[in-house]
Amino acid sequence: MNIQLRYYSGAGNTEVLSSEIEGEFTRRGYSVCFERITKQSNAQPPTGFDLLGVGFPVYHFRPPRLVVELLNSLDGGGRSIFFFLTKGMASGDSLRQVMTLAKERGFRTVAAAEFYYPGTDALLLFCKKGSTLEHLLKSVHSRKLQRQVNRLVEQAIHGAVISPPAQKYYHPLVAPFNDNPYQYLVEEFTVLRDRCIKCGLCVKGCPRDNIRWSSGEIAIGLECDLCLRCLHHCPTEAIQLGERTLNTVRYKPV
Ligand SMILES: Cc1cc2nc3c(=O)[nH]c(=O)nc-3n(C[C@H](O)[C@H](O)[C@H](O)COP(=O)(O)O)c2cc1C
Ligand code: SF4
Ligand code: SF4
Hints:
This protein has 254 residues and is an alpha/beta fold. 31% of the residues lie in helices and 19% in strands. The strands form 3 sheets. It has a 5-stranded parallel β-sheet, sandwiched between helices. The chain has a two-stranded antiparallel ribbon with strand order 6-9. The chain has a two-stranded antiparallel ribbon with strand order 7-8.
């Protein structure tokens, strides 16, 4: 069976989970082709697979744009797909949305699961370093994670079609967040020149190709998904959102 796995990840939670899932397939004797979802990788959608796994974090109760764009570019042709998502608190109708879209694209969804991980938005935007809130948020993890991963992989291999979950009861409450509530932050990106060591990690890591070199300096554009990878991973905290993130938590699970 040709198994491919594509995952979107900002700070790295979904990346870590994807490795766990890939590891479980490998333990069962399957090899998996494994790639991060970015603007560049979406230009070469997966081909030749029998089973496709798609992983993503929930951003404002929805899947990230690049995940939706990837699904929209694929023709399922009756093949199997499974989903896994990571969330800090509440996923809204994210799973329902991707499973419905997958069906429209001709896929059979055979497994889906949600996993709790620390909220990368709350850590960066609301947590001072060393605070109790930092400690609390970093302790958020799915209990029985390994059992959940085993079950997901088992179901994915077994291949029976599952139905999308019902609409969440709180859907009317989160519907107003259909527009990204963090969108205003895109204009607040700042690069502190005296802190930047020009390592280029932010340029390489941005899923949107939104960070570039410009006359030897880092320049951040407005095509941002607010995945927060550049802020969490910059080794010197040179990337900031104005002054609001000067003493807040940076988080890197990998
Ligand atoms: C911009 C943004 C919006 C988020 N919105 C939600 C949300 O609506 N619900 C939720 O449970 N978690 C939310 N989170 C938390 C992430 O889903 C969670 O931390 C996830 O594990 C991040 O995965 P990643 O590190 O692979 O990007 C949000 C995080 C970010 C950066
Ligand atoms: S990751 Fe940080 S230090 Fe490295 S080039 Fe980007 S802004 Fe500069
Ligand atoms: S600029 Fe930063 S936050 Fe925006 S998409 Fe790129 S890495 Fe993510």
